[in-house]
């Protein structure tokens, strides 16, 4: 770090600038946000600078700078748009003891002005030491978009409320209160006018005070296969009342929308930015939030009790004496089988159905494969895309029919649901060709109803 960022107190301080063109204007626009005394030297000033002078916002001298003109100045900007003149004025300012910035000349500058995101009194300065102005602009644009424009006003009002908010226990409860204020209730209240903010703060504080008095609790909620209409009423209610929602990758955005607006949403299934959050950190998050008094919804796809690592999380919260309950959800197999118009069990076909995970297939014992390979068996295979070839190999080895129907349902219950109807022998190739990227459930021993009917009807039609 060659440049160390600081925030300079400007009230009553002199800041001198030499120049009257575009470069001067750009810097002055920033400097006018401060409470410094601005002095500008410009033989031919831009009319805008003249009107600022007329309004008393700066002092304008319509002449080139002379020795001693920057005496007592803290900062000096050479914005002459002329290298020679910049060097001359910078030398004068340096002799006066001011810190010097030569506009667009990093080498001769003693300080540089960062890109600024202004939500006064919240100010964010971004610098790249001249290495990547494009990057600084991109970061600024990103932050401008992310931070409500009312943040500054909210910060000023919030400052006056700090003492009252100290009634909340330190740590999480207080942090949650302020986060709620700055990002949810504050922006909403100020949209109705600044006078609405203070009452909103009072309500919010009462809400948080009563919340911090009640013990935390965790609801392990099955979020279903993706279609929000497949949520149970209990799941909806839990989402409605949640302080914190900790959710997995497969939870659809439409379902997240249903959570209480003030709820803290924590994504523990991130992909793309490196590995997803570890089970240990998820357990720790659950404990931390519940202990701070939050009503936590641990939202898992499908049914929380099916391949959801639920017991590990229950053990972790039990160890801390935290109360919990389970809200059942519609598991992917139920949604997928509905999508192909079939039953999971059927008299005279299969009276049992296995739920398998493609992940643990290696631990599947030989007698399990042998049982599954018998005619009319049905299995719902979760997370089975990668293991398709392995499963096929084992089943064939144990005598399964090559043309046993296999159906893969991708994105079951969602608008982009796709159904691949194939056979055990063609499964790996057909699956590779289909290039499925969404979650997919594989039914071994089941064909979509229409395909199944066509298969049994064909001989009849041929006879006719
Ligand atoms: N608890 C979940 C399963 C979690 S394991 C449940 O009960 O459904 C994740 C696997 O579930 C995925 O790899 C996929 O096989 C299956 N799955 C989840 N949602 C699905 C969907 N909408 N369509 C098809 N399969 C899905």
UniProtKB/TrEMBL annotation:
Domain annotation Tetrapyrrole methylase: ranges: 218-427
Pfam families: CysG_dimeriser (PF10414), NAD_binding_7 (PF13241), TP_methylase (PF00590)
Reaction it catalyzes: precorrin-2 + NAD(+) = sirohydrochlorin + NADH + 2 H(+)
PROSITE patterns (UniProt xref): SUMT_2 (PS00840)
Keywords for this protein: Cobalamin biosynthesis, Lyase, Methyltransferase, Multifunctional enzyme, NAD, Oxidoreductase, Porphyrin biosynthesis, S-adenosyl-L-methionine, Transferase
Gene3D superfamilies, A to Z: Cobalt-precorrin-4 Transmethylase, Domain 1, Methyltransferase, Cobalt-precorrin-4 Transmethylase, Domain 2, NAD(P)-binding Rossmann-like Domain, Siroheme synthase, domain 2
Highest taxon of source: Bacteria
Pathway: Porphyrin-containing compound metabolism; siroheme biosynthesis; sirohydrochlorin from precorrin-2: step 1/1; Porphyrin-containing compound metabolism; siroheme biosynthesis; precorrin-2 from uroporphyrinogen III: step 1/1
CDD domains referenced in this protein's UniProt entry, alphabetically: SUMT
InterPro entries attached to this UniProt entry: 4pyrrol_Mease, 4pyrrol_Methylase_sf, 4pyrrole_Mease_sub1, 4pyrrole_Mease_sub2, CobA/CysG_C, NAD(P)-bd_dom_sf, Siro_Cobalamin_biosynth, Sirohaem_synth
GO molecular-function terms, A-Z: NAD binding; precorrin-2 dehydrogenase activity; sirohydrochlorin ferrochelatase activity; uroporphyrin-III C-methyltransferase activity
Domain Sirohaem synthase dimerisation: 151-195
Residues at the catalytic site: 248, 270
GO biological process: cobalamin biosynthetic process; methylation; siroheme biosynthetic process
Family (UniProt): Belongs to the precorrin methyltransferase family.
Protein name: Uroporphyrinogen-III C-methyltransferase
Origin species: Sulfitobacter delicatus
């Amino acid at each position: 770090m060659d440049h160390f960022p600081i925030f300079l107190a400007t009230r009553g301080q002199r800041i001198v600038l030499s120049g009257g063109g575009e470069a001067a204007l750009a810097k002055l626009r920033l400097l006018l946000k401060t409470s410094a005394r601005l002095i500008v030297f410009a033989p031919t000033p831009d009319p805008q600078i003249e009107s600022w002078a007329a309004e008393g916002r700066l002092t304008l001298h319509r002449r080139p700078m002379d020795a001693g003109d920057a005496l007592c100045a803290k900062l000096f900007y050479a914005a002459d748009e002329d290298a020679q003149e910049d060097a001359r004025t910078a030398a004068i300012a340096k002799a006066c003891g001011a810190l010097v910035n030569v506009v667009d000349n990093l080498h001769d500058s003693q300080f540089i002005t960062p890109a600024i995101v202004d939500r006064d009194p919240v100010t964010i300065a971004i610098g790249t030491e001249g290495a990547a102005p494009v990057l600084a602009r991109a970061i600024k644009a990103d932050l401008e978009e992310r931070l409500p424009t009312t943040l500054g006003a909210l910060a000023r009002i919030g400052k006056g409320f700090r003492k009252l908010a100290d009634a909340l226990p330190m740590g999480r409860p207080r942090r949650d209160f302020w986060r709620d204020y700055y990002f949810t209730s504050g922006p909403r209240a100020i949209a109705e006018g600044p006078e609405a903010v203070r009452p909103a703060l009072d309500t919010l504080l009462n809400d948080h005070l009563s919340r911090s008095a009640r013990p935390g609790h965790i609801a392990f909620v099955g979020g279903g296969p993706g279609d929000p209409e497949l949520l149970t009423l209990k799941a909806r209610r839990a989402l409605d009342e949640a302080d914190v929602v900790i959710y997995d990758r497969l939870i659809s955005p439409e379902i997240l929308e249903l959570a209480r607006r003030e709820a803290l949403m924590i994504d523990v299934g991130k992909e793309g930015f490196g590995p997803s959050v570890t089970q240990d950190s998820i357990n720790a998050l659950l404990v931390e939030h519940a202990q701070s008094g939050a009503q936590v919804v641990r939202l898992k796809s499908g049914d929380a009790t099916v391949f959801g690592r639920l017991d590990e999380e229950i053990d972790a919260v039990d160890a801390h004496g935290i109360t919990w309950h389970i809200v059942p959800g519609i598991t992917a197999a139920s949604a997928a089988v509905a999508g192909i118009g079939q039953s999971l069990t059927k008299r005279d076909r299969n009276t049992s159905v296995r739920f398998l995970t493609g992940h643990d297939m290696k631990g599947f014992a030989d007698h399990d494969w042998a049982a599954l390979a018998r005619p009319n068996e049905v299995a719902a295979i979760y997370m089975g895309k990668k293991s398709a070839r392995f499963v096929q190999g084992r089943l064939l080895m144990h005598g399964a029919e090559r043309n046993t129907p296999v159906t893969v349902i991708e994105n079951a219950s969602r608008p982009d649901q796709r159904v691949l109807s194939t056979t055990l022998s063609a499964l790996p190739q057909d699956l590779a060709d289909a290039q499925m990227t969404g979650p997919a459930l594989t039914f071994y021993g089941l064909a979509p109803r229409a395909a199944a009917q066509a298969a049994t009807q064909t001989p009849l039609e041929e006879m006719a």
